[in-house]
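Quick sanity check, ATP-binding cassette subfamily B protein:
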Amino acid sequence: MFRVLTQLSWFFREQKKRYLIAVSLLIFVSVVDLIPALLIGEAVDAFQRGALSASLAGTLIVVMLIVILASYFISYVWMRQLFGGAFVLERKLRSRFMNQLFRMDPAFFEKRKTGDLLARGTNDMKAISMTAGFGILTLIDAVVFMGILLVAMAWLIDWRLTLAAVAPLPIIALVVTVLGKMIHTRFSQAQEAFGDLNNRVLESVAGMRVIRAFRSERRDEAQFEARSLDVYKRYIQVARVESFFDPVVNIVVGLSYVIGLGYGAYLVFNQQLTLGQIVTFNLYLGMLIWPMFAIGELVNIMQRGSASYDRVNETLSVEKSVSVPSSESNGLADMPIAFNKFTFSYPGTNGNQLKDLDLLISRGQTIGIVGKTGSGKSTLVKQLLKYYPTGDAQLFYGESLSSDLHQEQVRRLVGYVPQDHVLFSRSVRENILFAVGKASERELNQAIRVSAFDQDLSFLPDGLETLVGENGVSLSGGQKQRISIARALVLNPEVLILDDSLSAVDAKTEAKIVQNIQNERVGKTTLITSHRMSAVEHADEILVLDNGVVSERGTHAELLVQKGWYAEQVKNQSLKEKGVTL
């Protein structure tokens, strides 16, 4: 049950001053809180003896007020330290969690659902935070405060009465042992179901246009209701287990009161205890109710925290699939880039997606990559970003092997425009400047002009300050692509990769963008993958891929002479542009 405290020991060591102050004051105030009951018992005995004078009553009242005020002030301090520590832990873990997501490679996200990651970064973090705050409080109250109360009851009142009154306590220990494991298992399952629900909501929101286009709102609504009901049922299962704690504690408390009052009355009747002592004892017995409830809360919080920490730690413990070079003195990534008999396969797949690829990319060259869908075009250009481990494959940057370079070194060389254009819910300006943070108006306008987006600015209500909405929902596909291209161009990278990034623009705009890139990027390298041959016909070398193998290569003119797949596609696409149906 207390495994989560061991898992969080690094944090308690780090914040030992804070927790030492909090726990020490919490224990001290537990002792202070015993004094009012003693004063009340003393007043009852003095009243019974007829010795309760005005001065004695005044003294007791003043002392009680001082004790109450001292308890209030001390409680403020320990609560601030203890619950402040819980917030510190949540912030630290959330920062680690986010940093881990930033470190991870695409292979990590391909195996995990976004909704589940969100659940781990929100609900699970809150459960762990509760462990470091309210969990420590219940631990101290369930163990230390209860121990102090029992010692006070046995030492100050009567050990026989105390032993009789706490005889039912082992019932709670038995229930805690049985139900604790059930809570851990069921809460883990509930959190996983909540993650699936999160993912479903994200998919529905992102795909709302498609859902409406196919009139599938009711079906999607029914699927959401089914997922939501599943989450509800799983949390109800957790609540059912938790609901056993309070009745058990109430029964134990009731038994303790019956035994305490009955046996206490017998001792008073036989003059072995005074009336004031039995009053004090019953006040202490009433104070014992919270520590008994705290046992149930302790089990609940610790098991929830343990289950959540396991889920979060599972994410934090994942290692990068692309290894980080041990040496920090590697040379910078440079040109030319050379693939030497390069073979690659995605992790966990059978067969190779690239086979025996030979390619030399010199500074200033434009390389076109074409082929059928699934032929390996995107796979090839992604190798330049070190997204996936390449094993013993030979990929060189200048004289440095790719595996000897850090990802940051490689990616400083590259500006990448992916097939799936990702825009943020910010203004057009902020999306274009995302990679650089700041740029001069001249650099910004140049990137906009080269990407041929300047012709669209006049149609946007607020120009560059227009908010694009969730993933650019207010823009057309072509506008999204050109903003993505401008975002890469403003970096002025040594290597620009356009991964089928002109598919949503018309032929005229495509030609304009290609011409602009040729004019502005003299002496810099460009790689273009495309399904339209017109996007690459100006390239210094064109590769035709077929199932990861280079089936044709050469310039546009040379490939037309070969009369292979490339020449056939050029002919077909040319006829389509002229309106001729094949």
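Posting the structure with no commentary besides this: Strands lie at 337-344, 354-361, 366-371, 394-397, 400-401, 414-417, 495-499, 525-529, 541-546, 549-554.
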